[in-house]
């Protein structure tokens, strides 16, 4: 017995297209007509395949964090605190000022949305942000425990500072700052970074 009607779209390609739209326009700034144009699907097809805009956005955020926005997990594998921070900053710049993607950060841009319709997206992105701070705090705490960071260093505050700098880099990139300027900011952060040695 033949199967159901074959899909006329590739789910990965469609999600990538949606990701670029949300990345460029944010959650609130993205309309269903933007999504249908980018994904090459009708509104009913998008709803049938991915759910409503909120559900699609959640899928897109997961895809972003597993792809271009997933640089934190890779940076945390570095052997020293300074290497973690350097890798984190450089990777963030590569992502927010890429040659073939929108400038800025999908999660930062999405979190700046305001209004009751964007509240679920804001809650999702706030959770993502808290998770990043927690992961970075735990890694920095381990470095402090082994003497790679000064005993006077507060890992939680330092993690929040680093995430704030990365968010600032994303805003700068979205505003048109060149990569060279972003790297100068990263270099200044490294000069201030309280590592030993």
Summarize this entry quickly.
This protein is 68% helix and 0% strand. With 197 residues, it is mainly alpha-helical.
List keywords for this structure.
single chain; mainly alpha
Description:
The protein is mainly α. The radius of gyration is 19 Å and the shape is elongated. It starts with 10 loop residues before the first helix and ends in a 5-residue tail after the last helix. The relative contact order is 0.13. The model has no long low-confidence stretch (mean pLDDT 91).
Secondary-structure blueprint:
Layout: H1 11-25, H2 32-39, H3 43-50, H4 53-66, H5 71-75, H6 81-96, H7 106-111, H8 119-145, H9 155-174, H10 179-192
Task: Write down the overall geometry.
Answer: elongated
The total of beta strands comes to 0
Mean pLDDT: 91
Biggest sheet, in brief? Answer: none
Output the radius of gyration. Answer: 19 Å
Q: Output the helix-strand order.
A: HHHHHHHHHH
Strand content: under 5%
Which oligomeric form is depicted?
Answer: single chain
Structural class: mainly alpha
Helix content: 55-70%
Low-pLDDT stretches: none
Helix count from the secondary structure assignment: 10
